[in-house]
Amino acid sequence: MKKSISKVVLAYSGGLDTSVIIPWLKENYEGCEVIAFAADVGQREDLTGLEEKAKKSGAGKCYVLDLKEEFVTDYIWPTLRSGAVYERGYLLGTSMARPLISKYMVRVAEQEGADAVSHGATGKGNDQVRFELTVKALNPALKIIAPWREWDIRSREDAIDYAAAHNVPIEATKTKIYSRDENLWHISHEGGELEDPWNEPREDMFKLSVSPENAPDKPTYVEIAFERGVPVAVDGKGMKPVELVEKLNELGGANGIGRVDMVENRLVGMKSRGVYETPGGAILVMALRELEQLVLDRESLAWKDTIAQKYSFLVYNGQWFTSLREQMDKFIDEALKFATGNVRFKLYKGNIICAGRQSPHSLYREEYATFGEEDVYNQHDAEGFINIFGLPLTVDAILDIEGTRRTGRRDK
User: Fold this and answer.
1) Which of 162, 275, 315, 392 is the most buried if burial means most Cβ atoms within 10 Å?
2) What's the pLDDT at 22?
């Protein structure tokens, strides 16, 4: 037996790993009461039987909380507005959800007077860091129990055998090969034949999107409205955050939008291969980029892109509850104060094609950009600008000719 823990709150999904954790905790921590906590973040599962299932597995109580609205407004929207995309492709669906789930795991622990929390993340993955950094940020007094770093279970087969030996009700079988995580923003697929990056994903693996080949032969047009960088309407209809994401998931999925197959660098130091479906998210990321191109000046856009990469690392690494992220949000709020407008897309067989963008705060002015006759820009002014902008090159060339500083450029 481990040292005494009176009560522990487990981040519970009802899947194989967290189901077997319940009896394992009771078996290894004498006198421990297990409280299961499940978060509804839009994973399209029927959660009505989750409480009964948790109790049958040995839990004393089970909380099931609907967190979809908060997930969108407080986690998805800030990450979207930051422009964060991890390693050129991953739209951070799982990464954003973990701090929210952990936040409420801590709240339930405090409400129940628990002295520990537990999760089902493995010792190889990123989620263990995301769960535990949130606990440390919000209540460092809570003990953290990570069974995958302690127990003798080493495989899915081991877990199934453990469940059978302890009469834990599960639906998993030894033939099921994919590890998936789904929420309102995306679904991820790992494991099985995907562990060989040369293997093409099987079409029957995908859940949220049709293949581009099977998408409609005619394009679908969609128009998205933003206010200060926050999506507020689709095709002229104002929508609440959850409804808006669901609508774009439907449109994007039907047109084969949002599939990403990538090999990424995990925080713990190894590479992993994952396939993601983020149909609505892919549309929103592209739409906000188009609007930013219209309303942000060059230096602001460049600096925002710099912040986006750092923001993606913070979210991926589980550093949501940090001062740096909060400070970056303040910059983003200021940068996007004029990001109000509409973007129109043509969705066609996996492609997101911009068909128009407009904003009352647009920096684009036709009278300046036109190739026709105009009288607002004196083209002769460009000569002085080029002379000043090119002055360092002129000095280098003079020194090269004099032999004072050989650049070698003239010899090529």
Assistant:
1) 315
2) 95
Per CATH, the number for 7-67+93-177 is 3.40.50.620
Digit-coded pLDDT (tens) for 359-389: 999 999 887 777 666 677 788 899 999 999 9
pLDDT band with cut points at 50, 70 and 90 for residue 321: very high
Q: Which of 107, 179, 180, 261 is catalytic?
A: 179
The question of whether 179 is a catalytic residue gets the answer: yes
Question: Where in the chain are the domains?
Answer: 7-67+93-177, 186-296+338-358, 366-411
Contacts of 85 (CB under 8 A, 6+ apart): 91, 92, 285, 308, 312
Which H or E run contains 265? strand 259-265
Neighbours of 394 (CB within 10 A): 10
- The catalytically annotated residue of 17, 19, 102, 259 is 17
Among 163, 165, 160, which residue's Cα sits nearest to residue 177?
160
Looking at residue 174, its pLDDT comes to 67
**Cα–Cα dist 13/27, whole Å:** 20
Distance, in Å, from the CA atom of 225 to the CA atom of 246, rounded to the nearest integer, reads: 16
- 127 in active site: yes
Q: Is 186-296+338-358 in CATH node 3.40.50.880?
A: no
* Residue of 81, 127, 209, 272 marked active site: 127
- 17 catalytic per annotation: yes
The pLDDT, as a whole number, for residue 73 is 98
Q: For residue 118, indicate whether it is catalytic.
A: no
| Residues 252 and 286: beta-carbon distance below 8 Å | no
Picking from 234, 286, 245, the residue whose alpha carbon sits closest to that of residue 83 is 286
Distance CA 299, CA 215 (A): 39
* Per annotation, catalytic residue among 13, 19, 81, 98: 98
* Nearest residue to 95 (alpha-carbon basis) of 185, 26, 25: 185
Q: What is the pLDDT of residue 265?
A: 97
Nearest to 76, CA basis, from 302, 328, 280? 280
